[in-house]
Amino acid sequence: MKQKKIKSILESNAIDKKCSVQGWVRTFRANRFLALNDGSTIENLQCVLDFEKLDDSFLKQINTGAAIKLSGILSESLGSGQKVELQVSNLKILGSSDPELYPIQPKRHSLEFLREKAHLRVRTATFSAVMRIRSALSFAVHQFFQQEGFFYINTPIITGNDAEGAGEMFRVSTLDLKNPPKDEIGNPDFKQDFFGKETNLTVSGQLEAEAYALGLGDVYTFGPTFRAENSNTSRHLAEFWMIEPEMAFYDLNDNMDLAEKFITSVLKNVLESCKKDLKFLDERFAKEESSKPVKERSSMGLIQKIEFVIKNDYRRVSYTEAIDILRNSKPNKKKKFKYPVNEWGIDLQSEHERFLVEKHFNCPVILYDYPANIKAFYMRRSDDGKTVRAMDILFPGIGEIVGGSQREERLDVLKERIKEMDINADELWWYLDLRKFGSVPHSGFGLGFERLVQFITGMGNIRDVIPFPRTPQNAAF
Ligand code: ATP
Ligand code: MN
Questions:
Q1: Mean pLDDT of all residues in 243-270
Q2: Fold (topology level) of 6-105
């Protein structure tokens, strides 16, 4: 008999058909009613064990977490809220599970507890829903770019650039840490290392993506990114996945338009393709919110929030306007910000971003034209001489979800910026070459995939939207 996934059984409504399924026991009641889940859907298949007699030792093996194979006849279900249930005629235990030891019991577990059981947490409704959505979202990302004529490229994970400028890096080395070869002045001699130079894990594929955009036109990367930043927040991972489109002939406005269109498209896609998982997470989100103090509660439900972001244009506000708003804001005047906003030029803190998005505008915001000295060297200098053509997209509850810019395409200006910022230009010889041979205006952005998954699933902590999170002091599994 052909094995079927529970998702297709529930969708097909095949009453009176013979059927065989395999999965894991979620619950087993009254020695008769079994809820089976195989990961294909949030829903369990209700199974009724109607054997004449089952011996006790066999029944004892049907525990939460056990893997079993069932076959029988699908019949119309009277009680369970589902159209069909399986009248079981044959049951085989594939892998037993000791109820005394199996940590995932049919009750509410805290997310913190489940993080310690990251190898088993996908067997809960919440995590399976999050991971199915993550998968659908990832497909939607490729679908969007492929439809738009972008090419998927893979940039190096091990990099010799130390000027990517997006954060602290993890060293990659095969030198003996205890006894490294030394150079003339007693430092480790990286000339003798695997690559003959210092190398690190990449913090961004942007610089290489630029090279490919200036040949293929429109490209995107979607790969792992590593940052050794010691920020133990609910929005930072040491290993995360980043989507980085890079487009030739795009200015900053084209860049913003694309980012909005992209986010709208993938949100719509997932809203359509993950209805059941989202409904479950929407209810979960409502429960979580209702346990928070009234002041901190989200004013919208999860699905409502997603629909709101799809329907509404993002507010585009220059850094300078934002500073004015913040300077004159209530929390600033009442000294409620930890970092007071006094002068033009400061870097915005997450409390400021949250005020703009969640209190002042109450919608996603694109901040653009930042002061040059708080942004990276490759961003295009504006005519005012003070700002660069950068943009950050800020989302409610998440903060920064996208960081992007128009890139400096003028060789002389770029060289000047590199010098000003004290960056080693020798390393960037190939990047400067791009400005010598057929340079054109171009733009791109980076979107943290997990932050988008957080937004769609309503999970408060980024550690709960990636299978095995990497954070400071934690590389278990
Ligand atoms: P933040 O200020 O939130 O640390 P950033 O300015 O360092 O972000 P960028 O260097 O612009 O971020 O990276 C592009 C995008 O990558 C960010 O908008 C965010 O969505 C995501 N991102 C950055 N750092 C992390 C991280 N440590 N974990 C997960 N996602 C991240
Ligand atoms: Mn950062």
A1: 98
A2: OB fold (Dihydrolipoamide Acetyltransferase, E2P) (2.40.50)
